[in-house]
Amino acid sequence: MTNLLNTGAKATIWGKFKKLWMYYILQSLMAAAVLCILVPILGKDRMVLISSMGATAFILFAMPTTASARTRHVIGGHLVCLAVGFLFYYINLPYIFGYPLTLAVAIFFMVALDVEHPPAAGTALAVVINEVSFDISFITVMVSAVLLTQCRYYLRNYLKDLL
């Protein structure tokens, strides 16, 4: 049992935490602060969209230098996935086929257009599953994505990769 606690991975995690603990706290609080602004804007009836924005916030504040944290990937990924979600909403396939196909097509277009942002796949599914209106969803997701990316941009000199 003692050997399990003293493994190299455990020591590495603890060493990284000891070195960056203040960033862990501050960046987590920054992500929460941005979501405190977004939640009232989104409203209770669009909470499913906030889940993909929460995942986006994680990437932007915990892994700010990764490719999927780039503005083009965040905004482009959500935009592509909104379009795919609405396409499948209007096609109106049985959910057993529609939901998986929505995800497959969203992934295909994000990769093909080089705007990979994993949380955006949740946006595509949120649109097709929850049958939210196009104008409200588009505005909500795009305003949220722009707000999050702008926060990351202006805080970029203070953010560190935490993973």
Tell me about this structure.
- With 163 residues, the protein is mostly helical.
- It has one domain.
- The protein is 79% helix and 0% strand.
- It is built from 7 helices and no strands.
- The longest helix has 35 residues, at 8-42.
- It is globular and about 50 Å long.
- The two termini are 26 Å apart.
- Residues 1-5 have low confidence and may be disordered.
Shape: globular
Beta-strand content bin: under 5%
- The count of strands amounts to 0
Radius of gyration: 18 Å
Name the helix and strand elements from N-terminus to C-terminus, one letter apiece.
Answer: HHHHHHH
Give the tally of structural domains. Answer: 1
Stretches with pLDDT under 50, minimum 5 residues: 1-5
Key features of this structure:
mainly alpha, disordered N terminus, 163 residues
Sum this structure up briefly.
With 163 residues, the chain is mainly α. It is built from 7 helices and no strands. Mean pLDDT is 87; it is low at 1-5.
Q: What's the topology here?
A:
Elements: H1 2-5, H2 8-42, H3 47-62, H4 71-91, H5 95-112, H6 119-130, H7 134-155
